[in-house]
Write a structure and sequence with these properties.
Elements: H1 2-104, E1 111-112, E2 115-116, H2 118-129, H3 134-146
Helix pairs in contact: 2-3
Length: 147
């Protein structure tokens, strides 16, 4: 009879061993589950943090885009203004160059083909009409033309 009793004992110890193994396996699975759950929570926190960063960066990007557009508009206006000023200065420069050429030319044509040119005759008449004496007309015209 001893053999029959030992068989249930062997069976009981085998089942007990299997139960211990399954308990260890279950504990390992629970531990892995808890770790995975903690990792999921951490990843959710990271995701939330990253979403906030993305939102702030998009907002900042939008503000920068508006600022860039504003600067572009300002620069276009400044370029147009500077181009206008440059054109105006070119015109003035051309006038001054012509005036310089006139002033550098020391010979002033007042007499051609035996008579005064029409412009000089008009100036003489205007000066006489302003009561400039005939003896001073020639001197006044030379002074004005030289200066």
């Amino acid at each position: 009879m001893k053999t029959k009793i030992s068989e249930p004992e062997d069976e009981k110890s085998t089942i007990s061993g299997q139960l211990d193994d399954q308990t260890k396996e279950l504990n390992d699975i629970k531990q892995k589950y808890d770790q995975a759950e903690n990792e999921v929570v951490q990843l959710k926190h990271q995701k939330t943090g990253l979403q906030k960063k993305v939102w702030h960066l998009q907002k900042h990007k939008g503000m920068q885009a508006k600022e860039i557009d504003s600067l572009k508009d300002h620069n276009v206006a400044m370029i147009l203004k500077l181009e206008s000023s440059a054109d105006e200065l070119k015109g003035k420069n051309k006038e001054l160059e012509q005036l310089t050429c006139l002033l550098e030319d020391e010979t002033i044509t007042t007499f051609e083909n035996g008579k005064h040119v029409d412009e000089v005759q008009e100036v003489i008449m205007d000066l006489l009409a302003m009561n400039v004496s005939m003896s001073k007309v020639n001197e006044v015209i030379r002074t004005v033309l030289q200066k």
